[in-house]
């Protein structure tokens, strides 16, 4: 039950906040922190429990919500809830407008992320996968008056929607082949190329890897807290988590594809992290590079090593982002040229940021070191030169860009401390990261040869970054063309922009030609019928009605004239004559009844009386 | 049953009394439609009754309620009710509003009667009856070249109706019956080569009403130039009556033939959804955008019906309901925008979220539902349609249909971006929407969320 409530309550809470939260800042904050605390406690409660529970959703179609509790899901939920709670506390001072909107989508996101991680069937995975994308869209476009951030949100949503579509189809095909949506059916399906490729595309879009990496860098237009939570600590990890769930389904061919994409994205984004001039973009590219690192760890080595790195990364990357939020707050800019802090003015900030950087770079005993150590151990076990070199290059580049960032930022004389809750939360995250390092110290077994490898990377990387980034002993002048390429972030963004512009242009062209023709033809049809009707009416009126009229009237007049001439004249004469004669005859007839003789009169009266009395008797 | 027939007659009585009551016409229409809705709900989801109508010809007036007609008539009355509620504020100050309401009731009654019909005669009579008030609603209260557009609408609708009339008479020559129940048993009497042509006639007839791709020319003008509540009824309800016709007549009677010949139907469905989506992307007029979006969405319904699979059929009917709610909300929002901002041109709008937060969020909910976001209503119906598509073996077509949802998301969210986000143009004056408009939007947006998260009762109604 707790497994259901832990994501249901934030989802409901988000609706409550959106509906009743406007202009009630205090209520919103207390309400959302209460929900987050509930999540933290229940995730601690869930830790270590195992099992699967199903709740019917649409029984007619056999669609269910299900909770799958195992080590991966419970552990990841624990991390999500801790990181999200700390970021929520940070947001209290960081977010100053649109309170209801922000916290509502924050809770919606947390609920969907936890629902995604705990899902036991692919439908639920799909549902929360897409919901996370929607939250991401809203939160990136949180400053909705800024055209840039709205565009970035739209771009993020549409790019990840490509993955959603692929996931949708993959889930349906999975259902077709197994007759079930349950994750446990994965073992029965075997390795399917089509489903595998669809899953891989979904994973690549969500975790922002090549060729879809561009949306994540643009997503940095959102508030920094959002970047910390969604675009480094949790949401982009959904792709990795899905990979963990379905990796047994991928055939070797599909894995080759995935490895190629991840390898390319690891190297490209590391280069971009080294060259970018926007601090949030540096972190974004570093996130992509780390996500690719995890992906490679999962598919080339063991899933557990990738998983551990994912957990560590979510803490220290959130920490780095939150520190960055304060940097931006202090210097008012995201450009690395403008952020020039002095460590003596901001000691707490410096220490916490340093902890994050050391973890990212993989320096013992900080948390990132241990997961990298495990990755090295198992890559050495694979005895493959390619695999080893991929991970070595990856971590060397990671080392370089993390120290470049550190040296670039703390290279000035700005700074003011006392950021209240924001400082408190970065301290919390730094503490969490340290604790993780200590725990892993006891958990992870150290192997001598891989430790040596790590030390080698640290030595080379440390030397180079000290000489190049800190002391600036020499500088490498890149050819202009390379400079252009990195400036444009390998043109992928432009490429997709170009495609979308062409697409919109094409639709407008079709609209102006074909569609106007179709609608126009209906117009022509309508006006044609109207024309035919009206002009036809006129013609009919002219021709038929008039002619009928005329003929009728003509014939009647002629006929009547004829009759008149023929009959009427004679008739009158005849009538005159006959009436005269008739009246004379009547006159003669009745002349005798009006004589003045009394006898006649009395006789007539007597007859009358007899007739009357006869009538009375009879009737 | 008797309750339904009384409430149905009450609709006509209400329409007549609207003519004599200039002030209270809106309330009359609200009242009679609400009574109809109530009696439909009280009646429940199944029933059959026939009344004598034109006895010498053996024509009956019947009421047929089953898992197809009940949900659709429910949504017709619901959206009509909301539309007349919305019209009370939206049409305020327009001329001859009482006649508008009379037409609106008659329009509802036409659709309702066609859906309830148990026989072809009744179906055809009400099918024609719904065109006439719709014609007046566009011609008299519409915008732009309303008369010409209304005439065009009427011609197209009537041509489609004649196709249906021709088809049904052709069928009658073999079956000697107009009753749906009897034809269901007698349709084997029709020779196969006649079935081919009759089914084509019906498909074209219903396709005109649904605005399937090459026959959609009347829709963009009619939907965009009618007053907003009427557009909501057109797009949400009227074009769905065509889909109902396919579900009621074409599939049961000709399904045995079409199931092996549905390739072109699937292609037409796919082209319709793709074409409508593309055209929606190119629009700058918000109502035209929604009109093309309707074409695209009706493509999904047609696609679901043409797969000839029980699952996707359920999905398509569920899609009709969900799309009716979503598209009605979107057209109401376009009405709110016309009322508040005074323009339909997307290029003149921007940054309206600040001044119209409720409208903005309602629009976001509707648009996200349109784009197939989970836990909003359309997702469930899309899932069911596509599940049926996969099960019926049309994997490529289903994959393409799923891919086209990307296009839906693109045009819908781009519209949101241009209307509600960004900076507000300084010349734009915003008049706050009235309470009735707000209530309308809240009800429909909540309905989208409720059905999306808890679709079980609706699906029970359909299965």
Task: Provide a descriptive summary of the structure in words.
Chain A has 22 helices and two strands. Chain A has 619 residues and is mainly alpha-helical. A two-stranded antiparallel sheet of chain A has the order 1-2. In chain A, a hairpin with a 4-residue loop joins strand 1 and strand 2. In chain B, 75% of the residues lie in helices and 3% in strands. The mean pLDDT of chain B is 89. Chains A and B meet through helix 5, helix 6 and helix 21 of A and helix 6, helix 11, helix 14, helix 15 and helix 16 of B.
Task: Walk me through the topology.
The complex is a heterodimer of chains A (619) and B (463).
Chain A lengths: L1 H19 L4 H22 L4 E8 L4 E7 L1 H24 L4 H20 L3 H19 L6 H32 L7 H4 L3 H14 L7 H5 L5 H10 L3 H10 L5 H24 L3 H22 L2 H29 L15 H15 L5 H16 L2 H25 L11 H23 L4 H23 L9 H8 L4 H100 L6 H21 L1
Antiparallel strand pairs in A: 1-2
Helix pairs in contact in A: 1-2, 1-4, 2-3, 2-4, 3-4, 3-10, 3-14, 3-18, 4-5, 5-6, 6-8, 8-11, 8-12, 10-14, 11-13, 11-14, 12-13, 12-17, 13-14, 13-17, 14-15, 14-16, 14-18, 15-17, 15-18, 16-17, 16-18, 16-19, 17-19
Chain B lengths: L1 H19 L4 H19 L3 E8 L4 E7 L3 H22 L6 H20 L3 H22 L4 H30 L4 H7 L5 H19 L8 H7 L2 H31 L4 H19 L4 H21 L3 H31 L16 H14 L6 H15 L3 H26 L14 H19 L2 H7 L1
Antiparallel strand pairs in B: 1-2
């Amino acid at each position: 039950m707790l497994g259901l409530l832990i994501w249901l309550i934030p989802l409901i809470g988000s609706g409550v906040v959106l509906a009743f939260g406007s202009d009630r800042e205090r209520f919103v904050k207390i309400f959302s922190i209460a929900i987050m605390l509930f999540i933290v406690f229940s995730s601690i409660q869930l830790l270590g429990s195992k099992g699967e529970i199903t709740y019917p959703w649409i029984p007619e179609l056999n669609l269910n919500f299900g909770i799958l509790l195992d080590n991966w899901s419970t552990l990841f939920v624990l991390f999500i809830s801790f990181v999200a709670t700390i970021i929520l506390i940070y947001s209290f001072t960081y977010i100053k407008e649109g309170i209801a909107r922000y916290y509502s989508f924050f809770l919606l996101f947390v609920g969907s992320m936890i629902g995604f991680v705990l899902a036991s069937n692919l439908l639920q995975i799909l549902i929360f996968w897409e919901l996370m994308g929607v939250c991401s869209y809203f939160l990136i476009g949180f400053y909705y008056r800024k055209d840039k951030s709205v565009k970035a949100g739209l771009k993020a949503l549409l790019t990840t929607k490509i993955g959603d579509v692929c996931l949708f189809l993959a889930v349906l095909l999975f259902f077709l082949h197994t007759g079930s949506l349950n994750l446990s059916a994965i073992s029965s399906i075997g390795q399917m190329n089509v489903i595998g490729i669809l899953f891989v595309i979904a994973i690549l879009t969500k975790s922002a890897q090549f060729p879809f990496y561009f949306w994540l860098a643009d997503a940095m237009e959102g508030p920094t807290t959002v970047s910390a939570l969604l675009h480094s600590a949790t949401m982009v990890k959904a792709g990795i988590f899905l990979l963990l769930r379905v990796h047994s389904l991928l055939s070797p061919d599909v894995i080759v594809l995935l490895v190629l994409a991840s390898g390319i994205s690891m190297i490209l984004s590391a280069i971009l992290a080294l060259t970018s001039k926007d601090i949030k973009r540096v972190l974004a590219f570093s996130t992509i590079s780390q996500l690719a690192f995890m992906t490679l760890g999962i598919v080339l080595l063991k899933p557990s090593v990738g998983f551990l790195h994912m957990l560590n990364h979510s803490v220290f990357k959130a920490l780095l982002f939150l520190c960055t939020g304060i940097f931006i707050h202090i210097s008012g800019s995201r450009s690395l040229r403008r952020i020039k802090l002095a460590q003596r003015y901001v000691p707490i900030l410096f220490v916490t940021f340093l902890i994050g950087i050391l973890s990212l770079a993989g320096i013992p005993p900080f948390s990132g070191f241990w997961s990298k150590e495990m990755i090295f151990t198992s890559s050495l076990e694979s005895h493959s030169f390619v695999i080893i070199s991929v991970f070595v290059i990856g971590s060397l580049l990671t080392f370089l860009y993390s120290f470049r960032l550190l040296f670039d930022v703390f290279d000035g004389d700005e700074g003011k401390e006392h950021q209240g809750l924001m400082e408190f939360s970065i301290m919390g995250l730094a503490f969490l990261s340290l604790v993780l390092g200590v725990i892993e110290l006891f958990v992870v077994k150290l192997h001598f040869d891989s430790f040596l490898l790590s030390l080698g990377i640290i030595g080379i990387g440390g030397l180079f970054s000290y000489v190049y980034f800190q002391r600036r002993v020499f500088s490498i002048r890149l050819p202009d063309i390379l400079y252009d390429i990195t400036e444009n972030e390998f043109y992928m963004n432009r490429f997709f922009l170009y495609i979308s512009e062409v697409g919109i242009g094409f639709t407008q062209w079709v609209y102006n030609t074909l569609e106007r023709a179709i609608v126009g033809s209906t117009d022509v049809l309508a006006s044609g019928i109207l024309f035919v009707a009206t002009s036809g009416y006129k013609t009919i009126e002219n021709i038929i009605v008039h002619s009928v009229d005329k003929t009728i009237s003509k014939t009647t007049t002629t006929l009547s004239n004829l009759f008149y001439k023929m009959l009427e004249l004679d008739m009158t004469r005849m009538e005159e004559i006959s009436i005269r004669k008739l009246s004379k005859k009547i006159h003669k007839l009745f002349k005798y009844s009006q004589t003045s003789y009394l006898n006649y009169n009395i006789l007539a009266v007597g007859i009358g009386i007899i007739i009357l009395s006869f009538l009375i008797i009879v009737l | 049953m008797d309750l339904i027939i009384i409430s149905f007659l009450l609709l006509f009585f209400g329409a007549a009394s609207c003519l004599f009551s200039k002030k209270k016409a809106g309330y009359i229409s609200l009242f009679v439609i609400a009574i109809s809705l109530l009696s439909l709900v009280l009646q429940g989801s199944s029933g059959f009754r026939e009344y004598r109508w034109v006895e010498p010809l053996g024509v009956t007036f019947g009421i047929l309620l089953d898992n197809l007609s009940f949900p659709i008539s429910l949504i017709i009355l619901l959206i009509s009710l909301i539309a007349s509620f919305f019209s009370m504020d939206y049409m305020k100050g327009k001329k001859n509003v009482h006649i508008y309401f009379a037409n609106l009731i008659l329009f509802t009654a036409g659709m309702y009667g066609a859906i309830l019909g148990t026989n072809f005669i009744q179906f055809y009579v009400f099918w024609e009856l719904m065109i006439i008030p719709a014609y007046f609603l566009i011609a008299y209260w519409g915008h732009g070249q309303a008369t010409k557009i209304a005439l065009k609408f009427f011609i197209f609708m009537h041509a489609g109706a004649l196709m249906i009339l021709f088809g049904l008479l052709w069928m009658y020559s073999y079956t000697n019956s107009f009753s749906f129940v009897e034809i269901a048993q007698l349709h084997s009497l029709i020779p196969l080569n006649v079935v081919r042509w009759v089914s084509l006639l019906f498909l074209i007839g219903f396709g005109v009403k649904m605005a399937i791709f090459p026959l959609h020319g009347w829709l963009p003008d009619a939907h965009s130039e009618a007053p907003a509540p009427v557009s909501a009824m057109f797009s949400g309800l009227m074009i769905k009556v065509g889909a109902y016709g396919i579900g009621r007549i074409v599939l049961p009677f000709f399904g045995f033939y079409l199931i092996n010949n549905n390739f072109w139907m699937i292609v037409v469905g796919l082209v319709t959804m793709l074409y409508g989506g593309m055209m929606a992307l190119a629009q700058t007029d918000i109502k035209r955008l929604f009109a093309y979006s309707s074409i695209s969405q009706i493509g999904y319904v047609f696609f679901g019906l043409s797969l000839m699979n029980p699952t996707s059929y359920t999905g398509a009917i569920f899609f009709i309901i969900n799309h009716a709610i979503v598209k009605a909300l979107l057209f109401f929002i376009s009405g709110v925008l016309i009322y508040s901002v005074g323009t339909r041109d997307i290029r003149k709008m921007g940054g309206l979220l600040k001044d119209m937060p409720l409208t903005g969020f309602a629009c976001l909910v509707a648009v996200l539902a349109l784009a197939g976001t989970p836990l909003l209503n359309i997702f469930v119906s899309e899932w069911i349609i596509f599940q049926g598509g996969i099960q019926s073996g049309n994997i490529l077509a289903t994959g393409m249909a799923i891919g086209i949802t990307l296009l839906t998301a693109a045009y819908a969210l781009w519209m949101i971006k241009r209307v509600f986000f960004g900076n507000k143009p300084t010349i734009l004056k915003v008049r706050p929407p009235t309470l009735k408009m707000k209530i309308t939007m809240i009800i429909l947006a909540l309905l989208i969320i409720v059905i999306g998260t808890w679709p079980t009762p609706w699906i029970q109604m359909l299965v």
